[in-house]
Description:
Blueprint: H1 3-7, E1 21-26, E2 30-36, H2 56-72, E3 82-92, E4 101-112, E5 117-126, E6 129-140
Amino acid sequence: xxxxxxxxxxxHRDPMLLVTTVEAxxxxxxxxxxxxxxxxxxxxxxxxxxxxxxPGVYSVECMAQAADILLLSTQRYREKVPLFLGIDKVRFLKxxxxxxxxxxQAKLISEYAEKAIATCSAxxxxxxxxxxxxxxxxxxR
Length: 141
């Protein structure tokens, strides 16, 4: 799935669309996606000028957007708006630098269908090494 196909599923747009491709999708179960960390992103002017690094909150947003695609690609949540309810057990283990292409994996770990709330575990890999991980909880409205 490319960016145009991704934009048919989730409402995010540049500069906050933080998924470049979807490499694999098991509907309602798991997703593997990528994000190219474009060195021209304005965020790097201030984070940090002499040693740019992707902010941790961007990593969390990448995990959340992969989970959004996973959930919104199902019939039950199609065309809903994903609301970020929370994060848990987030750890940052490796720097993500301008020019890197990160791999994002997420899987559904719990769902409260009556309230349209789901939690996904997610991991980000950079050059094959675990760079970040955590759980994201989303409400579909």
